[in-house]
# Entry
Amino acid sequence: MALVSTSFFDSVKMIAAEKGIPEEDVFKAVEEALVKAAERYYQGLGFYYNLVAQMERETGEFHVYALKTVVPEVEEEDLEISLAEAQELNPEAAEGDTLWLPQDTSQLGRIAAQAAKQVLVQKVREAERDRVFNDFVSRIGEVVVAEVKRFEKSAIILEIDRVEAMLRRSEALRGDRFDKGQRIKVVIMSVDKSAKDPQIQVSRTDPRLLVRLFDQEVPEIHDGTVVIRSCVREAGDRAKVAVTSLDPDVDPVGACVGLKGSRVQAIIRELKNEKIDIVRYDEDIQRFIANALNPAKAIRVNIVDPEARRVEVVVDDEQLSIAIGKRGQNVRLAAKLTGWNIDVRSESEKRREAEVAMGIALPEVAEPEAEVAEAPVSRLLEDLGSVEGLDEERAARLAASGFTDAKSLYTVTVEQLLSVEGMDQDLAFRLIDAAHERFGE
# Structure
């Protein structure tokens, strides 16, 4: 019998209490460490016993036993004991029984304590990971208040209920600037039991954060009177939320906005001035799409291809830029919100198409072949020639793809321009911005 130092024994209990781990789990970890230490000690002496260790929970005393099977004839002395010898130790011993034979632990005190400390650290870490996983896995999607603890190159380390969490830079808002000790709202994204970094991953860009913030700020959402049917974000910039009411006397949009915008403004401040469009959900997909393009006003919505979920929305000429939004953001978010591909057209453009279809449009004047080929390039360069990186070769490629003037770039997306050979993302953004500046937002 040997005694683990009182200070170490006390530290076991202290760690268990501090980490919120059952004491029994810690004691079992220490017993495993004692077995490993004893195995190394006896193997050094040439003995390869099957060992177990027991630690007294109240005193810190520990015992080490060699387990030996009772056999008629011993073949492996380290693992077996003869029936005759076993009955000398225990008269009731029978063949096949396992005897626990106490071993001398007088030389194991210091070695055992060192080994126990090493293994204890690992076992406590594993037990803590299990506890964190079990505590937080059911909280995925929950909005919590976290405290900023420290900053790393690619992440911000937060603390939630005394547990570290990781906010990756890519999951923070563009305008987020934090100080150590600051308390911020985040949504729990995932919990990874095997992660080397903090197990809890949180986000401020996830749409669930916006949904939960509305749940906290709007009593009608919290009690289920108003329901959020869909929510999409381009985090830090703009979001759209589709809401409906289960009570015909409750206006879902008004409930979310609040008196003089008080409710939605609280959310906007939390999200660093992210613009939020609250739109009314409608079972009629055409009305819903019209609502989703808010703040633009749609004249009509035509379903072009139900299977491909494509619609055409016609707006007044002065509403075209509003419907599309800067860099196509408004129509892009509306498409994500509704799940339909939306093509926005102006009333005058539709009118011209109708005139052509009816054969009343002005006849085209034939021009020399060379001039016809060069005219689109000339128009594009005339409109946007000041844009850095737009040369004759790129203008010709754009014209060949149907982008013949500034107006043709007004409703285009960056993805569409990148399909043109020789186009890069920076030039695509510059061209779209120039088109918007020319025709207004």
Remarks:
- The first helix runs from residue 6 to 19.
- The longest strand covers residues 61-71.
- Confidence is low (pLDDT under 50) at residues 361-374.
- Residues 143 and 187 are 4 Å apart (CA to CA).
